Amino acid sequence: MRVPIEWLNEYCAPALSSSELAERLAMTGTEVERVEHHGVGALDQFVIAKVLERRKHPDADRLSVCMVDVGGSAPSQIVCGAPNVKAGQTVAVARPGAVMPDGTTLTKAKLRGQESNGMILAEDEVAIGTEHDGIMVFDGDGLAPGTPLAQILPIATDVLVLEITQNRPDCLAVYGVAREVHAATGAPLSVPPWDTDPGTDGPPAGIEIDVLCPDLCPRFTARVFENVEIKPSPAWLKARLMAAGQRPISNVVDITNYVMLLTGQPLHAFDLDRIAGAQLIIRRARQDEPVDTLDAQTRALDDQMVLIADADGPTSIAGVMGGARSEVSGETTRVLMEAATWDGPNVHRTSLKLGLRSEASSRNEKGLQPEQAMWGQAVAAKLMIELCGAKLVPGTIDVGGPGPAPNTITLRDARVKSLLGAEIPRERSAEILTALDFKVASVADGLEVTVPAFRRDDITREADVIEEVARLDGLSKLPATLPATRHTVPSTTDGTAPPPGFGALTPIQRFRRQASDALVAAGLYEVVGWSFVGPELAAKLRLAEQRAVTLENPMSSDQSELRTTLLGSLLDITARNSSRSAMATALFETGAVYLPEPDRPHELPREPYHVAALLTGPVRPAGWRTGAPPSADFFAAKGVLQALLGTLRVPFAVRRAARPFLHPGRSAEIVIDERAVGWIGELHPTVAAAWDLDDVVAGFELDLDAVPLPEPPVYADLTSFPEVREDLAVVVGEHVTAAEVLATVRQAGRPLLGASEVFDVYRDDERLGAGNVSLALRFSYRASDRTLTDEEVAAQRSAIVRALETELGGRIRA
Q: How confident is the model at residue 721 (pLDDT cuts 50, 70, 90)?
């Protein structure tokens, strides 16, 4: 929601800067995404001027050379390309030094050899409209040359860009935001723009409305206007629409958009002469029934969607978009203005399924209240009379109004204190609620609070009212306290966690945090992705048979399933970084994945907790002594996995295994206690290409719930007696893995063998034989109670050699 400050100030004008106001709103629960500037800068350089003389440019057929009085001591010469410029006109001029809407600063220039000291302005050149073919011409009465243009038109304003939550559709309106500003700052609030209504009750003659699905259309209102003159809107209305992100079209269409932005109630204007049979029917659509919408598209509806039809068929998709057949045009003279309330979930489903989202649908899907329909009608009626010269036909069609009775909730003083941990005086609570348009009355133990219609779905219980009081009084004022308990946290001397229920982390929570800390220590950055993915993810990962939980009411089609892997969000973020020239990325994510049970489709999915990492690009910065650093590959990912599981004190192994999304021959599964708990490897090139990644991408994903919690560490003496180190080279077949060699060595070397590792790999078909490889091993031997003798070490070494020869078919290199 874009709220121009200039428009907001008409209803509530606090003595705060835009940034201060944004901070105040954010602190009271209205999220301000950012503050933008709309329009021009250097306002003193934009003035009213008078064209004294206009002559044809000597060297250009489409240019004019004008002498213009801009309020100075001498006229200025300005070259103008507009075809409608004439002597005697009162116009708007930007002088040198003016800052245009795109941020450029206007300077003196020569156009085809003629000096130009500024610009005679069209609407789009000050961002108050889209008209560019002709300059703006004003009625000259009372406008002296040199008058600041900002006194005539809203050519510059800051704009609050708000992120409105689903429960606050009242803030999708300028007046609704003004009400919040009033409550948050205490600045006076003007009466609602719908406070006076030129309309009357009773049905107007000549039009019939039938609502066949009142469950999906709680209220439908309509008014008829005659003698409507279709023309451009006045500049002030265009300027406000442009600042709010809407494109001006014509006065009638602009009025519907203006009223929607001001009151939050969407409206639709029908050309009454194009409504067949002078009858509108609100009904469920037939399966595959087509509708031609205003965006020149034909859309097929299903039988769960609602439409507005006349005697010839559908005219509009209810709550989403109007139809082309009855739209207002330049020939329109009679208008039927509709303002209705629709079932929010149904509008959301319709919009999502059709892939058609509009400003109207974004409001209707959040659940507007029946009372709001007449608010929109009242404001629209005044503007239709004022801006279109229209005659309002007596009467108002009102099917389903006015709305349910208001809800009354008791707010108890004691409950406020117990829930917030601080006492808020009853008078202060009443002040806040009154400012928010609640009706309050004192009772013995607190207040009787009547909820306004526009908050009916949001405020349903006492705790909701307390939240309103707390957020406006200031959440920062509330003391920081722990939940009340009859116990104290017991101290432990054995390093174990306190019993459950004492505010401490559980062993599993500590384990998960240790995993994240280990990956951060390894140089990776944590990311947080969506739990929702699109159905195309499985295909991009080459998982054709992947089953996923499908959402019944997704936010969008690309978030219609629950994720079964963390890889998707990691790839999205890696690709985003890569597209912005990030040379290397090292990311990890932790969180639940959702695995459906094929044999039990009606049960909730399993939600194992996974940790995944992804690496691409150089694994360390380049240095002048080391040259080009190596790039991420299988072994870089394995090193990160080693850092993770080593910190968690969990032994593991990897063994060959294929995954559709991994490179064949560079993939493996992670094994703990003889159980596969994840994968590791380099991504298949076609998978990486699906995200436009050219470099090798390596990573792993681990089911952390399947990793056993380690036992408390037991410390042993490692320094009293020296260790004995030696190296050994063994030749084995290519089919024998390094993990198998180390496992054999460790089994045969008990109990004196300490550390063992592979530190080199050598291949040479002539010396070793085809299909063989030499692994260089490094051992250390140690006894906890004595210094080892050469004979003990030799015996241990012989045992290792025998095991390598007999179990793996290896031979020792001389």
A: confident
Q: How far is it, in rounded angstroms, from Cα 429 to Cα 468?
A: 9
**Alpha helix locations (H) across 436-566?**
462-473, 507-521, 536-540
As a whole number, the mean pLDDT across the chain is 91
Rounded Cα distance, 337 and 410, in Å:
40
Cβ atoms within 10 Å of 612's Cβ, excluding its own: 25
559 falls in which pLDDT band (50, 70, 90)? confident
Q: Is 385 helix (H, G, I), strand (E, B) or coil?
A: helix
Pairing of strands 585-592, 609-616: antiparallel
Could you give the CA distance from residue 360 to residue 318 in angstroms, rounded to a whole number?
10
> What H or E segment, with its residue span, contains residue 666?
strand 662-672
Question: If residue 283 lies in a helix (H) or strand (E), which one and from where to where?
Answer: strand 279-284
- The residues that bridge with 271 in the sheet, in sequence order, are 335
pLDDT in tens, 588-641: 999 999 998 877 767 788 999 999 999 999 888 877 777 778 889 999 999 999
**CB neighbour class for 355 (10 Å; exposed up to 12, middle 13-18, buried from 19):** exposed
Opening angle at CA 475, ends 473 and 478, nearest 5: 100
Q: Which two tokens stand for residue 531?
A: 């739990």
Residue 294 in tokens:
């205003």
CB 619 within 8 A of CB 584: yes
Spatial separation of the C-alpha atoms in residues 291 and 288, rounded to whole Å: 9
Q: Give 237-265 as a 3 state SS string.
A: HHHHHHHCCCCCCCHHHHHHHHHHHHHCC
- The answer to whether the beta carbons of residues 261 and 177 sit under 8 Å apart is no
Quick one: tokens of 669? 């599964």
Evaluate the omega torsion of the peptide bond into residue 713 and state whether it is cis, within 30 degrees of 0: no
Q: What is the C-alpha to C-alpha distance for residues 366 and 362, in angstroms, rounded to an integer?
A: 7
pLDDT at 497 over 70: no
First to last CA, the chain: 78
User: Band of the pLDDT at 711, cuts 50, 70, 90?
Assistant: confident
Could you list the beta-strand ranges (E) of 171-216: 208-211
Q: Position of tokens 């990492």?
A: 613
- Provide the pLDDT for residue 486: 56
Q: What is the mean pLDDT of residues 175-194?
A: 96
pLDDT bucket at 738, cuts 50 / 70 / 90? confident
Within 13 A of 226's CA, how many CA atoms are on the CB side? Answer: 5
